[in-house]
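Continuing from yesterday's entry. The apo prediction looked reasonable, so today I'm repeating it with zinc ion included to see how the binding region is handled. Same sequence as before; SMILES copied from the compound registry.
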Amino acid sequence: MSRYFCHDHPEILTLETRVLDARPGAVLLVQSPFHPGGGGQLADRGRLAWQSGDVRVTGFEVADGRVWHLLAEPVEPSGVVHVTVDPTFRAAQTELHTGAHILNALVYRHFDGALITGAQLGDDLTARIDFDLPGVDNDRLRALDAELNDVIRQDLPVRYAWQPLERAATEPGLLRSRSVAPPPAPDGTVRIVEIVGLDRQACGGTHLTSTGQSRPVRILKVDNKGRHNRRVRMGLSRGS
Ligand SMILES: [Zn+2]
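Holo prediction written out below.
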């Protein structure tokens, strides 16, 4: 879990910066507003413009805490660049990611601390989250729909803190994934996301500043995936 510029400044989606290093089709920047994806959240999309060109940013490669921006063409930008994150795409990921937290908070609370075994946000306003929930009646999961939307209506604030991974690992529920603990930042800390009054967990993604900014959420489907796993598909309601 590297520490990204967007963790401190999620509202800044365009900025002027400089090229630190480049190779054909990839560039390293002094500063970047992009979220490179991870933990189920899809990488930001956007563009990069410089004195003699303009190119689409198609993906990211994180190596040694440095984020290489992968470009749609084999160009080598240099000097001052103007970068822009696709605001609609980021907003949808942020909203969906927040809904996913509310869902997994409710599952954790109502199903004896059930952990996540996988999560993936889509680019179609839906997400799937897998839980380690052997022997659970799927109707109980479907019934969380009402409580989920109740949390949205309560407009709970979302806050952040960084704390040492060692300490985070001793607090039950803070590391919510069954399989992977988030890699700490170079200073040994992980980022804790708190939905005040509901939930705290380690996460490096982007989230709304309060739950009330979300559209209503629906649980679309619950499937059994193997003996232990339940896959819950949720979606933001369209048409608002
Ligand atoms: Zn998150």
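Comparison notes:
- The two ends are 33 Å apart (CA to CA).
- Helices lie at 5-8, 87-110, 138-142, 144-154, 165-168.
Will overlay with the apo model tomorrow.
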